[in-house]
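Feature request, filed as a ticket because there's no other form

It would be nice if the structure record came with a short human-readable summary line next to the tokens. Right now we just get the raw output. Example of a typical job, pasted below so the devs can see what we mean:
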Amino acid sequence: MKKISTLLFPIAKKTFVIAAAISFMASAQAATGPAEKENLKFGFIKLTDMVPLAVAYENGYFEDEGLSVELEAQANWKVILDRVITGELDGAHMLAGQPIGATIGFGTSAHIVTAFTMDLNGNACTVANDIWKKMKKNVPMENGKAVHPIKADALKPVVQQMKDAGKPMQLGMVFPVSTHNYELRYWLAAAGIKPGFYAPHKGDTTGQINADVLISVTPPPQMPATLEAGTINGYCVGEPWNQQAVFRGIGVPVIADRNIRNEVAEKVFGVTKDWADKNPNTHIRIVKALIRAGKWLDENNNANRSAAAKMISAGHYVGADYKVMANSMTGVFEYERGDIRKEPDFNVFFRYNATYPHYSDAVWYLTQMRRWGQIPEAKPDNWYMEMAKKVFMPDIYRKAVADLIEDGTMKATDFPDLEKMTGIRAPNATTFIDNIVFDATKPNEYLNQFAIGIKGDEKL
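Raw output as currently delivered:
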């Protein structure tokens, strides 16, 4: 594994005399004091949405904050979480549900926080070619091409046939508290397919109780090979692993996650609460660098995306072919081979106030944890918001933005009025494939709307 590290003022970039450099550092630290910890190691999984970390490193944004950063690929999401908890990593690219799940004690228990949302959207659900062949018969067509978005109604007869034959459909997702797990379950349940329940209070964390399909964990980079081997019949994952299935001719992405639900945090930058308390200035400086990276990725109508795709196609980052990386990153997405469609919002890194850590996003994840039994007992509405505020830290984000504006790196017009932000998206800000409206201030009322799912005082 190649190590990536950035040194403070490397000789190749040292273009100022010492006095000017000292003046620059004093100016940069005017609002926020010096970093308590300058040498940092961050973890990531080989997915395109780790790209803000790569951009902040390659473009020198970490350097500008006086930070010497090493980026290191990790084997899977559990390893990332464990290594952040033990302190082997200072912080990491995390699933938005990971800090929340850990903080409420589902699976690994630890107080993890986030002050930065790395992206919105970015995933898709892919099925094996044989499943698509059967499913396609139920999909509306127009000019010889499938009409998108494709609902799981088209998959339902195939699921039933396999279940009746005693060989239930096997589907993969990346982690029990991942966006992918909840998106896949949401898509299936909207069509009346039961994705199964968790019962941690009974020692059952498989998520397969009363299931029509069997959903299990597969690490993202292993998804295509596992699909090709026939171990799973489909999966929900981030890029480039859906496009990889198309390029290898082994599967067909049937729906992008933004058509299941959009504008909810996908990945976040996570640290322990203890680390955040000990290193407040460092935390702010990291968020400053990452905000700049998000802005660079989305500015001028994604003009920098091709360069970003080339950047992370390197083996020490994601290590996939540039053509595969570019498909989703540059605003197009290929479904069936040759069926290339415009998807400018497949990945969103800055627009729509994407980098801000919204409390309402945390509440949505908590509702899904409750819906599928990961939270086994009923909770009052106020509990959901209390948990959200334990994990998401918009105050750190606001300080980072104030610094960026004060030092002239970014403009106030690049952001909404953060002083007026409540951290709660309007109920109509996020749309869902089943048209159910999510109001973060009424999580139990939201849960009551689902035909499939635990609600009220129900308990498995």
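Something like this underneath would help us a lot:
Confidence is low (pLDDT under 50) at residues 1-30.
The two ends are 44 Å apart (CA to CA).
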